[in-house]
């Protein structure tokens, strides 16, 4: 029986833990500072153990205590490289669902020397997106085709039936991460040229797209799409674009909040201030004139949807801010925490779609290939975002322990030995793509 150590028992942990307990005979130990989270993740299973402790800062102690054969890291992204480094030092294989940054990439040589696999970006996005794209692109190339265009979007949203607040969004992941994305620079390839939208400008360039069976969504460019040209082996592509799905109206709101400076990180004195007082400071006006000044700053009337959304969020209320110092970003986060919540019995939605335009010179044909993933979950059990983020690293760990993945070093899941069995196992969990091919 192998020992599996899971660090972190937050939102995505339960599907990860339960998959391993259901599909392997291994022992699973989970570490978290919150005992309630641990009990929910493990469900009291006889092959599970819980440790209440600081998984982020005491990794070495828990590795020495548990003596794991593999570590799955579900902690926040900033704790990924330090934990991975410890795993390399101890010669232990490692899996996480977070992006590979330079600090993680720098462990590649040491991991190979130790014969250790550091398997990252194995969640939903990144993760399932990589595996699906790598599989389809490989199939196109094997048929003698060329990928002219690659377009991919993903979103974690309230389900259509529970999309019932003015913002069209509810938190199924960290509000801090959501707000951090509001200032992110986006890069993508259009007509062979790199397009850069700095510091949240991407929200001023959305488009509307139809998803078959679900309807119309808003999408905007997300982060840096350029590295995927090499990662996916599509140097022939003239268009490479990765984006995020939202319900219509989100981009206008975030763009205007950016213009107001509501996502800045400069600390302010907030002692005894209400949210209305805070907005008066942001707008450099008195409390009595906040509505008028806000409309002027927005370039909108008081009946506009953006104004009404900010009012609904609570930025004009006389409620006191629950901390004495903080940034505009932390003030907004406090309202997101309060207002953008799922209610009991509600469902969430994960939507991912890839669109490939592929040309086949021998047949003199061009095809549009569409791959769509639709997954729903429940806040009373496991959300869709928890399932699609938590199950992939569990599958990766299981395959490594079974000896089915031989790679060493730092990898994303774009190798056939990783994505082929992983996608088949995800299908058994109901996480599957519907594909459609059209000659154009």
Automatic annotation (TrEMBL):
A single Gene Ontology CC term: cytoplasm
Organism: Thermovirga lienii (strain ATCC BAA-1197 / DSM 17291 / Cas60314)
Keyword list, A-Z: Oxidoreductase
Source species, domain of life: Bacteria
GO biological process per UniProt: lysine biosynthetic process via aminoadipic acid
Domain Saccharopine dehydrogenase-like C-terminal intervals: 123-431
Domain Saccharopine dehydrogenase NADP binding: 4-118
Pfam families linked to this entry: Sacchrp_dh_C, Sacchrp_dh_NADP
Protein's UniProt name: Saccharopine dehydrogenase (NADP(+), L-glutamate-forming)
GO function terms (MF aspect): saccharopine dehydrogenase (NADP+, L-glutamate-forming) activity
């Amino acid at each position: 029986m192998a020992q599996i150590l899971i660090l972190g028992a937050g939102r995505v942990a339960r599907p990860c833990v339960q998959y391993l307990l259901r599909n392997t005979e291994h022992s699973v130990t989970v570490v978290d500072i919150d005992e309630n989270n641990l009990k929910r993740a493990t469900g009291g299973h006889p092959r599970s153990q819980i440790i209440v402790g600081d998984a982020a800062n005491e990794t070495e102690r828990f590795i020495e205590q548990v003596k794991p054969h593999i570590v799955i890291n579900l902690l926040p992204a900033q704790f990924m490289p330090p934990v991975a480094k410890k795993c390399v030092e101890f010669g232990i294989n490692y899996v996480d669902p977070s992006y590979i940054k330079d600090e993680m990439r720098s462990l590649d040589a040491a991991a190979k020397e130790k014969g250790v696999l550091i398997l990252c970006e194995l969640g939903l996005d990144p993760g399932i997106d990589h595996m699906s794209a790598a599989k389809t692109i490989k199939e196109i190339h094997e048929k003698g085709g060329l990928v002219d265009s690659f377009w991919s979007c993903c979103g974690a949203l309230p389900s259509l039936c529970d999309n019932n607040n003015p913002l069209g969004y509810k938190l199924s992941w960290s509000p801090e991460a959501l707000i951090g994305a509001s200032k992110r620079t986006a890069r993508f390839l259009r007509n062979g040229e790199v397009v850069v939208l700095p510091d949240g400008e991407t929200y001023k360039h959305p488009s509307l797209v139809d998803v078959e069976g679900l309807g119309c969504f808003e999408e905007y460019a997300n982060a840096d799409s350029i590295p995927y040209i090499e990662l996916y082996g599509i140097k022939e592509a003239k268009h490479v674009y990765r984006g995020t799905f939202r319900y219509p109206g989100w981009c206008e709101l975030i763009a205007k909040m950016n213009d107001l400076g509501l996502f800045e990180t400069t600390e302010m004195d907030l002692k005894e201030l209400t949210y209305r007082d805070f907005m008066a400071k942001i707008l450099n006006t008195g409390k009595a004139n906040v509505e008028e000044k806000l409309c002027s700053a927005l370039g909108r009337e008081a009946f506009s949807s953006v104004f009404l959304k900010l009012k609904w969020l609570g930025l004009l209320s006389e409620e006191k801010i629950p901390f004495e110092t903080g940034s505009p970003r932390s003030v907004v986060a406090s309202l997101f925490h309060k207002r953008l919540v799922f209610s009991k019995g509600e469902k969430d939605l994960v939507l991912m779609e890839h669109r490939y335009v592929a040309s086949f010179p021998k047949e003199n044909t061009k095809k549009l290939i569409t791959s769509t993933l639709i997954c729903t979950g429940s806040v009373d059990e496991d959300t869709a975002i928890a399932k699609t983020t938590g199950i992939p690293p569990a599958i990766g760990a299981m395959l490594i322990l079974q000896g089915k993945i031989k790679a060493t070093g730092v990898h994303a899941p774009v190798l056939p030995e990783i994505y082929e069995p992983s996608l088949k196992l995800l299908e058994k969990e109901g996480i599957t793509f519907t594909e459609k091919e059209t000659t154009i």
